[in-house]
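Slide 14.
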Amino acid sequence: MRKPGLCLFRFWVGVVACASLPVIDSWAQSYPVKPIRILVGFVPGGAVDFTARLVGQKLSESLGQPVVVENRPGSATAIATERAAASPPDGYTLLLIPISTAVQSALRTNLPYDLKRDLAPVSLVSVGPFVLAVHPSLPARTVKEFIALARAQPGKLDYGSPGVGGANHLATELFKLTTKVNIVHVPYKGSAEATVAAATGEAPVTFSSIAGALPLLTAGRLRPLAVTSAKRVSSLPSVPTLDESGLPGFDYSAWYGVSVPAAVPKDIIMRLNGEIGKILQLKDVREALNKQGFEPQSGSPEQFGALISREIEQTVKLIKLTGLKVE
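Slide 15: predicted structure.
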């Protein structure tokens, strides 16, 4: 025979549980009720900033709330990432996470956050290569000529990047390892600054995102020598790959995605994931990304998380090969 007290207890537990379901469901459906911000770890004008503003504009339209891009440059995205990790886990702070952020986690042991522990993946957004570009005054019109020039002047040519340990920096160090050239690293606060430095001749070599370099390439202020992907890109169809230029198997591309503070509720993460997936199917978004040398790619939060983990593991191996250290 069941005890009356126990039956009554179970009855009220059931009542409370059932009563809470509409509240939770209502809360999930009401998100968002205020503006959302997307943190970007670089200055305006580069590939990460471009991607954040494109996604932010479309998210604003689909979610019915303003989405503001907030640039927090420095330390190859570590400043923005730390700020995102410390933000309230309510879904109103997003981080546009580039490959550079994963590189930082592989390179530095003293970061004020743990990328896997303190941030939750939402969705991959796009993938795109870098372009090796030089100031037009350099007497090199092909990769072969550039390698010969660099070897003839060891330590004399400077290259710019958005910072130590960024993906641009790592791509260049991989190029140096592969070709055995000695060019000197000059870190800047963002990819736009590094690309402009190449265009002015201050640091006449750069491995830039295509998005950041395209206006200067079109204006003739930079000369493209090759792209780092396995295949040519539609926005620079006449520019060969490094593989075609005598470096067989060279394939190193950047990726960009969205993350949030780790404790953001799963239903909000899935809401954002679904909205981003829809955005990446829009014709104008796909065309905008393609023009910048990006391929739109989405997927589940778990798939994006696996990509981040894989990138960190591969970068650790690459760092050992190149001997790369924080300067």
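Speaker note: The first strand starts at residue 36 and ends at 40.
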